[in-house]
């Protein structure tokens, strides 16, 4: 699937980029994105873990202002990356960090009260 956020090196506007995040999230059940660019990011190894205490925010899939939520999570938490996933009729947005080991991800997840971490190598969530 072509990256709808930045096709051929041409950066799209705020709403178009948010629509790209929404499309990738819905197609895959979640996603990892650069916090400033909202460009899709998929390393071959490492673990994603939330750095907010709980979740960064939640919005309605169909009618929520995802662009606003992405901007607020970036402004409040200043993460390098943002993770998204689908939860019922909502998209959850979480400021995340990516760490090399599962032990580090679990330690951070415990401190920030996360329910799960994400393994890029295994392409799956791991319940904590």
Explain this structure to me?
By secondary structure, the chain is of the alpha+beta class. The chain has one domain. Helix content is 29%, strand content 33%. It is built from three helices and nine strands. Strands 3, 4, 5, 6, 7, 8 and 9 form a seven-stranded antiparallel beta sheet that branches. A two-stranded antiparallel sheet has the order 1-2. About 5% of the residues have low confidence.
Order of H and E elements: EEHEEEHEEHEE
Detail the poorly predicted runs.
Answer: 4-10
The rounded distance between the terminal residues' Cα atoms is 31 Å
Which geometry do the CA atoms define?
globular
Oligomeric assembly: single chain
Q: How many separate structural domains?
A: 1
Instruction: Return the average pLDDT rounded to an integer.
Output: 89
**With helices defined by DSSP (H or I, 4 residues minimum), what is the helix count?**
3
Q: Sheet with the most strands?
A: 7 strands, antiparallel
- Helicity level: 25-40%
Number of strands: 9
**Cα radius of gyration in angstroms:** 14 Å
Strand content: 25-35%
Relevant terms:
9 strands, 29% helix, single chain, 3 helices, alpha+beta, 33% strand, 128 residues
Describe the structure concisely.
This protein is of the alpha+beta class. Helix content is 29%, strand content 33%.
Topology:
Layout: E1 6-7, E2 10-11, H1 14-28, E3 30-34, E4 47-50, E5 57-60, H2 66-77, E6 81-87, E7 90-99, H3 102-111, E8 116-119, E9 124-127
Antiparallel strand pairs: 1-2, 3-6, 4-7, 4-8, 5-7, 6-7, 8-9
């Amino acid at each position: 699937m072509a990256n709808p956020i930045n096709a051929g090196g041409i950066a799209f506007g705020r709403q178009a980029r948010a629509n790209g995040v929404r499309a990738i999230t819905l197609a895959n059940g979640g996603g990892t994105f650069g916090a400033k660019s909202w460009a899709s990011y998929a390393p071959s190894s490492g673990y994603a873990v939330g750095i907010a205490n709980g979740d960064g925010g939640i919005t309605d899939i169909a009618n929520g202002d995802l662009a606003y939520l992405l901007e607020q999570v970036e402004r409040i938490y200043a993460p390098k990356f943002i993770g998204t996933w689908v939860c019922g009729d909502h998209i959850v947005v979480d400021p995340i960090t990516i760490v090399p080991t599962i032990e580090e991800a679990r330690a951070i997840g415990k401190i920030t009260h996360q329910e799960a971490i994400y393994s890029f190598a295994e392409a799956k969530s791991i319940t904590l």
